[in-house]
Design a protein that fits this description.
48% of the residues lie in helices and 17% in strands. By secondary structure, the protein is of the alpha/beta class. The two termini are 29 Å apart. The chain binds coenzyme A.
Length: 260
């Protein structure tokens, strides 16, 4: 697949998908949303990929939002399609049963913050800036921001960020629970690579069980979610990887997980 706005690179079992519109601060136009959807589908189906890193090209931005030049001319019907394309992409990322890490080196604004929030882990540089400034354009977050920010940081922070449209720094993002880790800018790639490498060596079926239980379970009543966890736990106990992991511990050696 030839992408206009994405770069794809594989390092072992780690696939990095880079949004490549640095001159527009990697703003999400419809073409980019559609390409991301294709790239994530392909990664989900590719058994050789165990971990995904989502990044933005250039120094300045992860993603500075939906493409305002495109947004400015949307009819309501086109806006529906645009919002649905973003929501469906981001729900797909959230429900990917392989870990997805957002590597945030600069601006993650509007649709960029929403995209990052759909990933499973968010690792940011100390220079990162976050925000939901859509209110300043006369719109609201349309790619799930009102919902994911509320779930990650709570109602109070979500209302403050969406109503006032302010931009926050990485340390506030971390304090709010939106960012998992904040590291010096020059160590960002190294830190993300280390986390990705650790995940690439972990048992894939157990990783998928955790992702499913946490993400799907969060939308269920507690009893149903607990039952979901029980079933996923039992499934793990049917795998060769579970026998390998437990035997490796007992034999005081490093486990080698194969994903079956
Ligand atoms: N959509 C489309 N283009 C965007 C964009 C967006 N969300 N964000 C930045 N760009 C473009 C700029 O128009 C500019 O293009 P140009 O060189 O052709 O004029 C280029 O990216 C560089 O951005 P610029 O504004 O010059 O950089 P800056 O360092 O002065 O400011 C920001 C950086 C992030 C503060 C500023 O670009 C900004 O506020 N962007 C919009 C953020 C936003 O509202 N996002 C939510 C959208 S729903």
């Amino acid at each position: 697949m030839d992408y206009q706005n994405l770069l794809i690179s594989d390092r072992g079992a780690v696939r990095t998908i880079t949004i490549n519109r640095p001159d527009k601060l990697n703003a999400l136009n419809l073409q980019t949303l559609l390409e991301l959807d294709i790239a994530f589908r392909a990664a989900r189906e590719d058994a050789s990929v165990r971990v995904l890193v989502l990044a933005g090209a250039g120094e300045k931005a992860f993603v500075a939002g939906a493409d305002i030049a495109e947004l400015a001319n949307l009819s309501p019907v086109e806006a529906l399609r645009f919002s649905r394309a973003g929501q469906s992409l981001m729900r797909g990322i959230e429900r990917t049963n392989k870990p997805v890490i957002a590597r945030i080196q600069g601006f993650a604004l509007g649709g960029g913050m929403e995209l990052a929030m759909s990933c499973h882990l968010r690792i940011a540089s100390d220079k990162a800036k976050l925000g939901q400034p859509e209110i300043n354009l006369g719109v609201i977050p349309g790619f799930g921001g009102t919902q994911r920010l509320t779930r990650l940081a709570g109602r109070s922070a979500a209302l403050e960020l969406c109503l006032l449209g302010g931009i926050i720094d990485a340390s506030r993002g971390h304090a709010l629970g939106v960012l998992n880790r904040v590291v010096p800018a020059e160590r960002l790639t190294e830190e993300v690579d280390a986390i990705a490498n650790q995940l690439a060596l972990a048992a894939p079926i157990a990783l998928a069980g955790i992702l499913d239980a946490v993400t799907v379970g969060a939308d269920c009543a507690l009893d149903a979610a607990l039952e979901f966890e029980t079933q996923a736990f039992a499934l793990c106990c049917s795998t060769a990887d579970m026998r390998e992991g437990t035997q490796a511990f007992l034999q005081k050696r490093k486990a080698e997980f194969r994903g079956h």
